[in-house]
Amino acid sequence: MDWQTLANGLFPDGHDIVENGNFLSGSGRAGAGPDAQTVAVIGTTDHAPIGIEIALAQAQAVLRTVREHPGRPILILVDTQGQRLRHRDEMLGINSYMAHLGKCIDFARRQGHKVLGLVYDQALSGGFITSGLIADACFALPQATIRVMGLPAMARITKVPEERLTELARENPCSRPAPRITCAWADCRRCGNTNWRRRW
Asked: pTM for this structure?
């Protein structure tokens, strides 16, 4: 699902979400009548690889919401292929940028902001852990894909034979690259019949 269709469905009363280099930001009106409220929206699109630029932009959007709109709920729209695997990002400390994003989300929560994650397309490892996965609640559309790094990629990076990793995955559920394991660990919920908007 493309983010415009999703945003129009989530916010039929209007939104001002914009895309800038795979980074989404803006706000939308949720609910109706006296219960209606504005929701801050940040996120990614087009299977965005999370590099230092997007991690920093997301962190800035969270902090801007805390500063300018105290208590406003924050919705994180997730569509990512995970952490960007470039030497430049590694040398600039992508792990620190992603940790900073996680801290900003935690800070927003401590300041009274409800934070929800919604996986609408793909969520993969590091790009998901420091955004939607650490929200107060995380949901996934039925067609969404949530996964950790595949075993062949793990084998290449860790230099552990794929056969051994397969054995470990059988013995240790945390090593298993399966959406149901990720969802159980993260308390993800399928959106099917759940009215996630009530969680504001």
From this structure: 0.79
